[in-house]
Write a structure and sequence with these properties.
Blueprint lengths: L20 H11 L5 H5 L12 H11 L3 H35 L3 H4 L9 H9 L4 H19 L5 H16 L8 H10 L9 H12 L4 E5 L8 E6 L2 E7 L5 H14 L1
Parallel strand pairs: 1-3
Antiparallel strand pairs: 2-3
Length: 262
Amino acid sequence: MDAVVKKKENVCNPMDLMNTIGRELQGIFELSSIKDGETRLGIKDLASKERLNDKQIDKVCEILGRGDEMKDFIKTFQDNYELQKSKAKESYTQSKKNFTKLKMVLPLLRNEFNDGIDRLDDIIDYFGVNSEEEIFEEAESVAALFRQQNNVKVDPVNLKAWLRRGELDYEKINLPEYDETRFAEWINGREWEAHLDDEDYFKALPQKLLVYGVALVLVPYLHNTVYGAVRWKDGHPLIQISDRNQDLATFGLLYSMSLDMS
């Protein structure tokens, strides 16, 4: 029978990773070769026990043959657990809210980011940052720049995610040296203008431009982003176009922008 693959959770509950005092004592009993510790303690499902009363703590010390040191350990462990549990609850609540804001990004991951402990962690890996907070901070900075330059309304997270996909796709392309002269000749020949409504021609453009050392990447449109963007990466033009409307006119405009930036 094939093994059942557990579906990855959207957000893992950090409390599931915390050791209760009951689970901790089970480990101590095992290390002490005490096989009937739970029975002698008289607590069913010891692993789920989060706090012991004074009488139960005294019983544990009796079973283990240890005194005040063990009492102090148990009480300190329980107090720390309560503190960490409170923080974990807050963190879990906030992470679930953050996932709701970020989940639209998931299709752009293209199954390339699977090593996270949950889907939120995969999204963080996609953006190449260490936390959800960094995503929001960087996204707002990028959005502010685009609003200023283009006078357009953009969703910060969507825009950052869309641009990030372009960068990741660029890294997969083995580009020859950028040949600006030949590329300019091709653009100025305006061959592409005759194919503004030609879907096949549009989809073949990335390979066509590869010979000039130009990266053209097509990325699915995300709501409140842009139709296209141009950047310079490692001495190559990175022209990124949304697949919405398959807009070759936008391509021509973006190329003109790339010349101005060079």
